[in-house]
Amino acid sequence: MNLNATYPLTSTQIEQFRRDGFIKLKDVLDAETLAHYGQEITRLTIELNTQHLPLTERSTYDKAFLQVMNLWEQSPVVHEFISGQRLARMACELLEVDGVRLYHDQSLYKEPGGGITPAHADQYYWPLGSDRTITAWIPLQAVPNEMGPLGFYARSQSVEFGRDLGISDESEEKISANMARHGFEFVSSPFDLGEVSFHLGWTFHKARANVSSQPRSVMTIIYMDAQMKLQPALSPIQANDAAQWCPDVLPGELASSAKNPLLYSR
User: Fold this and answer.
1) Is residue 263 assigned to a domain?
2) Residue 191: what pLDDT?
3) Domain of 61: which CATH number?
4) Considering its fold, how many domains does the chain have in total?
5) Residue 1 counted as domain residue
6) Distance between CA atoms of residues 198 and 161, nearest Å
7) Which of 67, 68, 132, 186 has its CA 20 to 30 A from that of 74?
8) Phi-psi region of 21 (alpha: psi -120 to 50; beta: other; left: phi over 0)
9) What is the extent of the structural domain holding 232?
10) 255 occurs within a structural domain
11) Which residues in the chain show pLDDT less than 70?
12) Measured distance CA(162)–CA(175) in Å, rounded
């Protein structure tokens, strides 16, 4: 598959995303593409991972997955994948902006026996000035229920309760209870091979444990509005994110460092 080929989104799908804060789309990438790029992504994730404690000795956060970020800087193969216009254009159209930059990429490798990914909203971690952020969640294999597919609280992107909670036992307990109390539907189902989801930075989501005997290997690409500005960090975690992913950018300035290339413009 050509990573720059257009995936046509309908107005109905864009409206669905605007309403629900997430969407799952089938046949975005074919098996050959996933096998080619997935092999390199998984190899680098295992090679560069710094988590070596047994699962039983890790925190809830660290049981959820092994993670390595900005693999695009480590490999021309991954750089090619991250730079693909197909996914970037989809992100741009779903966000309803004129262009998107890379915030960062992130490989998420949920080992066999890996724990739940507690309920959270990604943008808790990001010192960004608007809600025009979107994550493409790209499984490198099919993800049946027993492997822990990502699930979403539909229409939760406007909920402020829980935005101050990072991934933890506390976030799982408090956010899940609040979502249930206010009747937000939790939508979770297997991912077919080639199926990709997109969710807003403030959409609450979580994933089951991986109770299978196979690892769940996923690549994520976090896109932001090309006109996104950095905001003053609200926490040490956000200050660290700013330093890592938008180096030399000051609050109030365009988040357009060398680590934030423009990936698509209409």
Assistant:
1) no
2) 98
3) 2.60.120.620
4) 1
5) no
6) 22
7) 132
8) left
9) 11-246
10) no
11) 1
12) 6
Token digits for 108?
């998420």
Q: What is the 3-state secondary structure (H, E, C) of the chain?
A: CCCCCCCCCCHHHHHHHHHHCEEEECCCCCHHHHHHHHHHHHHHHHHHCCCCCCHHHCCHHHHHCEEEECHHHCCHHHHHHHCCHHHHHHHHHHHCCCEEEEEEEEEEEECCCCCCEEEECHHHHCCECCCCEEEEEEECCCECHHHCCEEEECCHHHCCCCCCCCCCHHHHHHHHHHHHHCCCCEEECCECCCCEEEEECCCCEEECCCCCCCCEEEEEEEEEECCCEECCCCCHHHHHHHHHHCCCCCCCCECCCCCCCEEEEC
Which position has the token pair 């864009």?
A: 14
Q: Give the model's pLDDT for residue 2.
A: 82
> Which structure tokens are listed for 91?
């992100």
SS3 content of the chain, % helix, strand, coil (to 5): 35, 25, 40
Tens of pLDDT along 50-65?
888 888 888 888 877 8
pLDDT digits (tens, 9 = 90+) for 65-98: 889 999 999 999 999 999 999 999 999 999 999 9
Torsion 255-260-262-264 (CA) sign: negative
Length of the chain: 266
Give the predicted TM-score (pTM) of the model: 0.96
Is 2 within the bounds of a domain?
Answer: no
Please give the distance of CA 200 from its chain centroid, rounded to a whole number: 9
3-state DSSP assignment of residue 5 = coil
